[in-house]
Q: What sequence folds into this?
């Protein structure tokens, strides 16, 4: 028998509100049926939808580590240096001090977080990242929150370390170290694959008697992906989703070739 979840539990798992989940259902992305606890959805369908939503975010933010750092910086913007609060004559600079004091930080800054960050990292992890350092290990808080609200817990890797802005506690350190080694190995494998693709293209061009030219002189496939990723982040920062999506498609095209 298929496992089913209530609307409330499905919304928690997807890190959306119940009205937000109903909009998703109206778009046909998820189907509900009548059950003993009211409307219910298949748990497998919710998990599949969660994966699809995460993959869509990865298409917009291919560099998860950089995106996690950006999210952390939104929650905990850098405080101006102390000397900026003082005028040249030594008097207090009230205007600069007022702006610094008014800057939203921590939980107050959650409203400024990109919704994509909540989809990719989970509401529990983003909320925990907004906790003050004196509250303790943010990864542990995220795990506790996830278990309480039936949400996906935090991952173990560099992206989450950047999001939390702190080293894992002793309990989590071993797991995080293993996850980071796997991430680095996966990244090396991708770069090696892109290198093999580039060499194959070059060999095919030479066999056909053609002059092989990278997309940019001296640029490998790996460098091409890196350039498109940087351009895509710039487009996102300038609120140009069309250009950002174009760069995401170019990245996918390079990886598929």
A:
């Amino acid at each position: 028998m298929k496992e089913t979840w209530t609307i409330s539990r499905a919304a928690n798992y997807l890190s959306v509100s119940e009205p937000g989940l109903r909009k998703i259902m109206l778009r046909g992305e998820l189907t509900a049926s009548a059950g003993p606890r009211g409307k219910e959805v298949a748990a497998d369908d919710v998990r599949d939808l969660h994966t699809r939503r995460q993959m869509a975010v990865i298409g917009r933010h291919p560099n998860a580590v950089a995106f996690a750092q950006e999210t952390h910086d939104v929650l905990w913007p850098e405080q101006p240096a102390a000397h900026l609060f003082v005028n040249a004559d030594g008097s207090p600079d009230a205007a600069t001090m007022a702006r610094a004091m008014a800057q939203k930080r921590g939980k107050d800054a959650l409203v400024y977080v990109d919704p994509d960050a909540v989809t990719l990292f989970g509401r529990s992890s983003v909320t925990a990242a907004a906790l003050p350092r004196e509250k303790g290990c943010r990864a542990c808080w995220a795990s506790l929150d996830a278990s309480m609200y039936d949400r996906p817990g935090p991952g173990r890797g560099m992206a989450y370390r950047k999001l939390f802005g702190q080293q894992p506690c002793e309990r989590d350190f071993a797991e995080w170290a293993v996850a980071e080694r796997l991430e680095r190995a996966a990244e090396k494998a991708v770069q090696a694959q892109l290198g093999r693709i580039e060499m194959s293209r070059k060999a095919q061009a030479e066999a056909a008697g053609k002059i092989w030219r990278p997309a940019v002189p001296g640029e490998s496939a790996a460098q091409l992906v890196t350039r498109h990723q940087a351009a895509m982040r710039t487009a996102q920062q300038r609120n140009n989703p069309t250009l950002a999506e174009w760069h995401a498609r170019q990245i996918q095209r390079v990886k598929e070739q």
Summary: The chain has three domains: 1-59, 61-168, 178-257. The chain has a mean pLDDT of 79.
